[in-house]
Amino acid sequence: MKFLCVPCDEPMKLASAAPPERGSLSVVYACPKCSHSIAMLTNPYETQLVSSLGVRISPAGTGAAASGDLSKCPFGDMVQEMRAEGTPEAVLWTAEARLRLDRIPEFVRPMARAGIERFAKDNGFARVDEEVLDKAKDFFGM
Amino acid sequence: MKSYYDIAGDGGSDIAGQVAAQRARITRNLEGIRHRVAIGSGKGGVGKSTLTTHIAMALRAAGREVAVLDADLNGPTQARLTGLTDVTLVPGAGGMALPRSASGVGVVSLGSFVPESDAVDFDSVASGESHVWRAAREFALLGDLLERVEWGRRDYLLIDLPPGAERTLQYAEFLGEGVAFVLVTVPSDLSRGVVARSVAALRKTPNRSLGYVENMKGYYCERCDEIKPLFPEAGAVDLDVRCLGAVPFDPALARSCDRGEPLPPDSSLPVARALAAVAAAVERSMEDPR
Predict the structure, then answer these.
(1) What percent of chain B has pLDDT over 90?
(2) Interval A85-107: pLDDT, tens
(3) Cβ B132–A48 below 8 Å, yes or no?
(4) Which CATH class is domain B35-287?
(5) Which domains does chain A have, with CATH numbers?
(6) Staple partner for B274: which of B52, B176, B242, B247, CB 3.0–4.6 Å?
(7) Listed residue (A77, A73, A87) closest to A116, CA to CA
(8) Which residue from A11, A55, A76 is facing B123, i.e. has the nearest CB?
């Protein structure tokens, strides 16, 4: 979808996108020529459709995501329950290990984290680093 | 006044660009895979998943590096079939490490992550009307798996598809033209009619149809040690693709699948020999030029 400022005949630019409120996304576009701005307010079905593509809506370069959170872990509630029953307590992750965690599919991260923390605890590791992850990989025959 | 096509870009959200970038990342992540084969049908309950598992095992036994992606997100069965219902997921250097079955086949199945007692559901800000967005969400999830799993160097990636002739077409478009298709039917004209629709749907794509497998072609009677008829003779519906083999029904196979211990390819049972022959036919087809 593109927006055109009719008086200026100028394409409008995405200025900001607010996180969804009750399923409605507020995306502001502004005309770079006359500064006139408009807001696109989506209904929940439109919001869901866009977020289902797994994309983020944010002005270029800001990294702020308005719809990204909507497409996260489909099993989030279940994983939260698993953590609450809570075998693993908080274990420190090094920046490198966390980077690896961020590279796996988003919806399995909570499960992977819980499993690795359990592995670390069972094997006496106080923190999770890349070496622990490699040991886990060997241990589980991957 | 400018039209849509007079305006370059989309004002900053770059949604189309993000989708294209993900497709490029998927392509890069699958570069180490030599052959990609989707096992589909159109018809449900014809044994796609069982065949996928056993083709994978037979290829593995022949020394190939094999992985299976269970693309049936709503009815994942590969985890149970391969004994991987409870796996610990490990972040590797290049994505999620590939869980391996006892036979050494890499398997990614939602059944390893979600207990069979739970529905595969997605959070949604929209109440009801999930038919509007659910397919898009499922393909995004599948894209995430293709992009962020350490598939590594493999001779084969087998993709176990969900039922539905229209789904066969959707998956062909999503997976791209480099994926060849094997279709599974049972020997009834009812089933062959549905599979014929998938064959027709695939003709609209550049994807290659390797052929079809006739599953449950008779049943193996252990007491008589012979294959007996299971369905009435069928064949009125011409599938117009090559037959890659026929596999009899055998209760021993069903039992082993339920236990998560697929039949070993070197089993002397007729069903195991038939499955190995299908795997060999698939491999010959993939090695043959078009």
Answers:
(1) 68
(2) 545 457 899 999 999 999 999 88
(3) yes
(4) alpha beta
(5) 4-71 (no CATH), 76-139 (1.10.8.550)
(6) B247
(7) A87
(8) A76
